[in-house]
Specification:
alpha+beta; 4 helices
């Protein structure tokens, strides 16, 4: 009897093993929950910005596109959108969220050449960075604890953060975020 019971348990275990294994790790086409949360936060902030629930502060450097020695004509603009308490209370219930977004524009000569966006969560930490520039591929960096967890460059997505990705995140993105939080015009040419 014990022999048959052991064989039955082994058969049930083997039959259930594929089911248990499939419930494990995330499948390749599925994003981890933290990435999904960051995307949802970004969409919410952009939607509320478009609905007028966020107010924008802008500051510019070389707004007249003066020719700078060794650099030529260029201009920098930083736009920071934050939730406005009175607008939020007129439209929504509860306290206004503390998440916010900063958009950086860097232009050489005519037109906007490069645009960067930094999304800050309620803890005032960078959780997302986006770069759109005509002369280079788009970049997206996802962060947790201000450390990169996913990088998308062009059509390539990686969750294995290289030394180059870490350097760019720390030396360029986090430096710009630190300066924006302090109200200082950051070095925007982030190529």
């Amino acid at each position: 009897m014990k022999k048959y019971l052991s064989a039955l348990c082994a058969a049930i275990t083997i039959a259930c093993l594929p089911t248990v294994m499939s419930a494990g790790p995330v499948t390749p086409g599925e994003d981890p929950p933290h990435i999904v949360e960051i995307r949802a936060l970004y969409q919410e902030v952009v939607r509320n910005r478009d609905r007028g629930l966020m107010v924008c502060d802008r500051y510019e450097h070389n707004a007249g596109k003066l020719v700078l020695p060794g650099s030529g004509a260029m201009s920098y603009r930083v736009s920071v959108w934050r939730y406005e308490e009175r607008l939020w209370r007129n439209m929504e219930k509860g306290p206004a969220p503390k998440s916010w977004i900063a958009q950086l524009s860097f232009s050489r000569g005519e037109g906007s050449d490069e645009t960067y966006e930094l999304l800050f969560d309620e803890g005032n930490s960078v959780v997302f960075f986006y770069q759109s520039a005509p002369r280079s591929a788009e970049r997206r960096y996802y962060f947790t604890g201000e450390k990169p967890i996913r990088v998308i460059e062009g059509k390539e997505t990686t969750d294995r953060i290289s030394a180059e990705h870490k350097y760019y995140a720390e030396a360029v993105i986090m430096r710009a975020a630190f300066e924006i939080k302090r109200g200082i015009m950051p070095e925007i040419d982030m190529r």
